[in-house]
Amino acid sequence: MNLAIRDIRHNAGRFVFTTLGVGLLLMIVMGMGGIYRGLIYEATLLVDRVGADLWVVQGTTRGPFAELSRVPANLEDRVRAVPGVAQARRFVSHTIQREHRGKALRMVVQGLAWPDDQGDWVPLVAGRPLRQAHYEMIADHSLGLPLGEKIKLGKDVYEVVGQTRGLVGTSGDGLAFFTVSDAMAIQFDVPSEAVRLERAARRARVEGIDLGRLQPLLLDRAAGLSSSIPAFAEPQVSAILVTLKPGANEAAVRRVLGAWPDITVYSTQEQKDLLLAGMVDKARRQLGLFRALLIVISTIIIALIIYTLTLDKIRDIALLKLIGARNRVIGGLILQQALFMGTFGFALAWWIGLYLFPYFPRIVLIETVDLVSLGLIVIAISTLASLLGIWKALRVEPNTVLAV
User: How far apart (Å, rounded) are the C-alpha atoms in residues 135 and 211?
Assistant: First the structure.
């Protein structure tokens, strides 16, 4: 009979509880890797889903996911006229937090370039895409807004006509899709009193100059809608998404757009690289550091456990030596126990994680390559951890069993 298995049966309770503790520790290590994978998935999800070939952003900036980017909405008309461009769409994305039914509701408002983009590419689990220019929205399931739910954002009320699942922004907040005009109305909404004060301030400024005193009609214009004042620009968007025609030369299109001094052009991969190098990089390094520390801690804990178990059976080891057992047999006993503990702990971590990780507030994405690498790490740390116990066992003198 295998000595390691026999000793485990003899101390079954201690082995089970010890393995449970090791398994929970390895589950945290596994979860750290899954959280890191989930961060990358969430950060690049929207960039991948919108399906743009090029991103046209404000000149000298790195795009809407790295910093503030503002370009005029009519830039899409200029871009659409470039040879090789099949489609140009306005991109509006911003995060808001409101109170709905007594609870805080945080969402990423995503604008769809109506009527060209009605959200048909959005993977729906219920409902339908947008079918009118205003007052409809598609909400991710994580927002807790069922079909038919109505929510007031700004001065308008929007109805949920479609639901998605698993579509979140870089911060983990659920996406909500509106038409671009509605998204901009939500973004630039200000209280009525603020509008009144701004109009009064404009009127006062016009009254204070000669032009206002010579042309009193300008006072009424200054106190009116901002859209009726030619000097005021229309609200700006975050970027313009460019889709190229089949077979179009991307480099040629980029050369044309790159000659415009007011914009900067990025490919989708470049936009993802900028996003990962900025918002996700520090979180990635921090999670990696915690994971490395947990691996070191796991090694130390397993080593101490194996050492303690070895001390508990010093007399048994001495008896084995007294009857002629080789050092290889004794070392194999301790090594096998460490490997059994690590293997069962790893299996327990994976099993518990299957049930717990889906309840985490952010996506925990466990890939096969991560499981394989962690399994190899567990074998390595179990082997290293057994060395302390083996060292102690080999130092035991056979006559120890005869001591009183």
Answer: 41
